């Protein structure tokens, strides 16, 4: 009976292996056999796969960019990369999950600026500390917003808005996706730097805010570039300036808001990047950063990012960490000055 039992056990194992392979394929795993030669080979026994954790549902920009990056990472790391969606609380649930995760390279966080810089500035009791609980690996891309106006209004530039607000304090309206959202803070930062007062009109989400700006119920809005672009091209909205440091190829002739004399230093960069639990060895963090740098040098990957309305924007480990720290300090100062709370 022993040979029969052994044959049965072998068949059972093969069936289980086939089932696991089917499961991985269904999950969209970027697979590549082999471990030898990977930049991570020196870290010890290889985990069976790497989870790239995203704090938002499938289909959004965080998820789409992570899924574009995953197969390129898999090819270079010679490991299976699984995009794992743990959505909730604007990315905070995923951040908390990864902060407590294993520091062996098997779990990475694909994050955006909100959970790492705005939430820490707005909330006192976050279950994680972005500077203490994470090892920054690399910024991958940035997605500035664009300041748009209803075309029925006379504003052609940000300077026009500032001049009008000085003539009529508290009268000019700007919409946002909600109190404490990036779209709210974009307008608050502009008011703070220019020394003006505009009326903030918070909505329950970016969709209604954009709709009412197009409809003329409010005058101004800070929108995602990919969202606003069709309305700008059709003439339903007028672009006044971008929140990033440089002009965008998708919006020729639209200057950075920081070029406006009253807005020197204005910068809002909704970045996307990769972080790991803080205990990850420094050599491994550096190697992962180098790997992501190599991914971003692929022209096809860069084009796919730009199709999603974001710009490739690499910053490696320490530089990325410094950017996060500077953003947190900026938002804490603004939130404290204005008395904003979530």
Any chance you could write out the topology, listing elements then pairs?
Blueprint: H1 2-26, E1 49-54, H2 61-77, E2 80-85, H3 92-99, E3 107-112, H4 113-122, E4 134-143, E5 145-149, H5 158-167, E6 173-176, H6 182-194, E7 199-202, H7 206-215, E8 220-224, H8 225-234, E9 238-242, E10 270-277, H9 282-296, H10 299-307, E11 311-316, H11 317-338
Parallel strand pairs: 1-2, 1-3, 6-7, 6-8
Antiparallel strand pairs: 3-10, 4-10, 4-11, 5-8, 5-9
In short:
The chain has 342 residues and is an alpha/beta fold. It has helices spanning 2-26, 61-77, 92-99, 113-122, 158-167, 182-194, 206-215, 225-234, 282-296, 299-307, 317-338, and strands at 49-54, 80-85, 107-112, 134-143, 145-149, 173-176, 199-202, 220-224, 238-242, 270-277, 311-316. The strands form two sheets. A six-stranded mixed β-sheet has the order 2-1-3-10-4-11, sandwiched between helices.
Number of helices: 11
Mean pLDDT, nearest integer?
86
- Helical fraction equals 40-55%
Decide which structural class fits the backbone: alpha/beta
* Cα shape: globular
Number of strands: 11
Radius of gyration: 23 Å
Which residues form runs of ≥5 with pLDDT under 50? 1-37
Give, in order, the helices and strands: HEHEHEHEEHEHEHEHEEHHEH
Biggest sheet layout: 6 strands, mixed
